[in-house]
User: Fold this.
Amino acid sequence: MSLFLDAASGKDTARAPIWIMRQAGRYLPEYRAVKERYGFFEMCRNPEAVTEVTLQPVRRFDLDAAILFSDIMVPLAAMGVEIDFAPGPVIARPVRTAADVARLRVPEAEEIAPFVAAAIPMVRAATHVPLIGFAGAPLTLAAYLVESGGTAEGFPGFRSWLHQQPGTAHALLDKLTEVTIRYLRTQITAGVHAVQLFDSWAGVHSAAVHARFGQPYAARALAGIGDLSVPRIYFATNAHHLLDQLADLPAEVIGVDWRAPLSAVRPALPGRTLQGNLDPAVLTAAPEVIAEQAREVLRHGIGGPHIFNLGHGIRPDVPPDRVSRLVDAVRSFDREPAAIPGGLR
Assistant:
């Protein structure tokens, strides 16, 4: 088993494995060269392009896992949703009424992004590191569908809609959950070694709202793949007020954003592997700052299994040489507490 899979399965490894959210992306010149030949959504739907972009950061850096290049919105096309990217997702017909929800299909598994399933064995054949598949959590997908794309204000229209039309919201979340389960099962059957459920906007909701509209559907999506015996990672941003709810999710790994140290979060998530949580902004700093901040995260990760990652996706303005420095710092860090003067326990 690989170091990443050991840690994801709950082993307290001597070194923290490292991968980076959005590691296949715009900060890499080789990615930008591929993107010049394709539009973003076209690139997501081309198995050869998906394979090439997925492998680029693995070739360049000594990473412990690859994550499939795609987007959380990709499976929604099979439901009848018209999506464009400009550059973020734009929904041609927002889903806001009971009739809108009724029009959405729940496609069979083989209809959901078959190009993703086609790319997975191609990636597997080209690299020895584990491959991570992923999907968007139902509540986050619903936010985009209702608001017709992203917002910098915490999806206020979507939050209002949940209170105005709770029955319609549950009907939408139910469909999205079933599609998410089918999509993840397809990826696992095709060969991914682990999966991550991205709940990017869970943190904009109160604990009470999340308990009603978020946690039950995320839990159902994760439980729906539990029989397939791959590690399940759940990641939400700005969600520290939801830790008691996250603790009840059927996930082996909980991703943590940069807003709190791992040592403060671990007691609320007993028996889980923690993933994270360097602030992505640190990667624009000097190499020595990156190395010290990485070591600080690693010190706080001692006390249980830890997968090193950023607290969110890598920024497009990060110089690739800074990622190399980060990987070197993580790989050279000994997690044995005795090796760290005053090490956290």
The chain has 15 helices and nine strands.
